[in-house]
Amino acid sequence: MLIMKRIIRDWTIFLLFCTFVFLFLFAEEIRNNSIFTRIPSSFFNVNTIFLSIILEAIPFILLGVFVSAIIQSFVSENTIQKLLPRNAYLAVIPAALLGIIFPICECAIVPVISRLIKKGMPPHVGIVFMLSAPIINPVVYASTYFAFKSTPYMANARMLVGFISSIVIGLIVFRLFKGENILKNQADKHPHHHHHTKGNKFLETLYHASDELFDTGKYLFIGAFLASLFQTFFDRNALLSVGTNTALAPGVMMGFAYVLSVCSSADAFVASSFGSTFTEGALLAFLVFGPMIDIKNTLMLFAYFKKKVVLSLLIVTPIVIYITVSVFQLIFLRGGAL
C-alpha cells in the first residue's frame, strides 16, 4: 500500500510538470482559443515563473546529485575523517570556505551535504558548508560585483556576512544537536539497485544519481510551484512603504528572498533592482538569507533532515542573519568601508 501511494504521488507530480511544460509551449495558442479566453492571465504567469525556476535549478540539481553519487561511490569514511580538523570548533572555518573550491548552488547542495554527513562529516560542519557554499564562491561574488557596480563593496559585505553567519549557525546547531543524528533514516531506500552494481563503480554512481534526482526533484517542483504563486499574487508595492525603515526592512527582504527562491548566481540582479527603495542592510539580508533558506530548499531539507533540525534552521537562520546584518550596517555599510 505504501509503495502504491508513493507511485501515485510521484506520477502525479510528473504529470503536473508535463502539464506546465505543455502550457508553456502552447500558451499563445491556448490564449487565442475562444474556449480558454476566460482563463486569467495570472494563471499563465504562474506557469511561466514555475518553469523559469525549474529550468534555472535543474542544471544545479543535476550537478548536486552527481557529486553526491560520486561521494557515495568513491569517497570513503576514512577520507572524510582525515580531511577535517578534529576540533569541532576549528572545523567550521575551512567548511565555511569550501565553496571557493566547490561552488555549489543552493539548488544542489542539500543532497551533497546529506551524503557527506553519512560518510562521516560532523553534522554541524555539514550545515556550515551547506549554508556558506551558495554564497562564498567565485560565481556568486562575480555576479554580485557586477549587479552592484555603483556600490561594489556589497559583494565583499555579502561574503563576510555569509561567512560569519554560517559559522554562528553551525555552532548553534552543534550545541543544539550534539551527538545526535540529524538526518532522516533513509537506509535501504532503494535496495533493489545495489545487488547489481557490486564492483562496478560507474553503474553504482549512475544508480545513486538517478535515485537522488528522483527524490530531490519532487521537492524542487513543489517548492518552485509555491514560489511562483507568491511571485504572481504577492503585491510588491506593499514592501515599498517599509523599504527605508532600518529595523523592518531587513526582515521584509529576508521574507521576500524566501518566497522568491531565486538562485544565488542570479539573485544579486533582483536585489539591485530594489536599490533605490531599500536600505543597503536590507539588500544584504536578501543576498545572504535567500541562498541559505528559501521555499524550494526548505522542502528539500525536509526530505533529508529530521523535522526538528529543519525547524531549528528556519528559526535560527533569520535571527542570526538579522543581527549580523544590523551590526554590519551600523559599522560598515553607511560609509561603504568594505
Automatic annotation (TrEMBL):
Main location: membrane
Pfam families: ArsP_1 (PF03773)
Top-level division of the source organism's lineage: Bacteria
Transmembrane parts of this sequence: 51-75, 87-113, 125-148, 160-177, 246-262, 268-289, 309-332
Keywords, ordered alphabetically: Cell membrane, Membrane, Transmembrane, Transmembrane helix
Membrane disposition: Multi-pass membrane protein
Keyword field contains Transmembrane: yes
GO cellular component, one term: plasma membrane
Keyword Manganese carried by entry: no
Compartments reported by the entry: Cell membrane
PANTHER family found in the cross-reference section: UPF0718 PROTEIN YCGR
Protein family: Belongs to the UPF0718 family.
Name of protein: Permease protein, putative
